[in-house]
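User: Hey, quick favor. My workstation is busy. Could you predict this chain's structure for me?
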Amino acid sequence: MPPSPASRAVTGARVVLRPFTHDDGAEFTARARQSTGHHRPWLFPPLTADAYAAYAGRLIEDPARAGFLVCERDTGAIAGFVNINNIVEGAFLSGALGYGAFAHAAGRGLMGEALHLLLGHAFGPLGLHRLEANIQPGNTASIGLVRSAGFRLEGYSPDFLHVDGAWRDHERWAITREMTAPAGR
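Assistant: No problem, here it is.
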């Protein structure tokens, strides 16, 4: 049986998106621990083997999720991650985007390339129509990433997600397949 579209690697000029595996736990959690200062207060990726096993297990086993590690093409080192959560099929064909760069890879353009690859994969083999990213208003790096990828600001959601012990406001950014289509298509 061929692999599902969510389980295929996608290769770019400098990064490879590949599915999460349970074997990536040691490197992922080491990178996450090294990046806590970079991630906080926006993001809380798993820091322990047990937390990673649960996190990766959900991404691997749940058909409503597609999780990818962002790996540097030359070295294979994990630079970050991009996930599509809450995938809804039928008339909606949508998913919620989550992502994070590890500190050693931040500011190098790797996540921009990874997001571009993910959009092609989401709107191609995965067959989605829309992706949404919900971002805390003060997270300027994250807003810059989605803005540069062509997402549009669609609204503001007070008390949207429980992050770092409190309900946090988020901006809703979204992109559709048509927004990424080349002219004349």
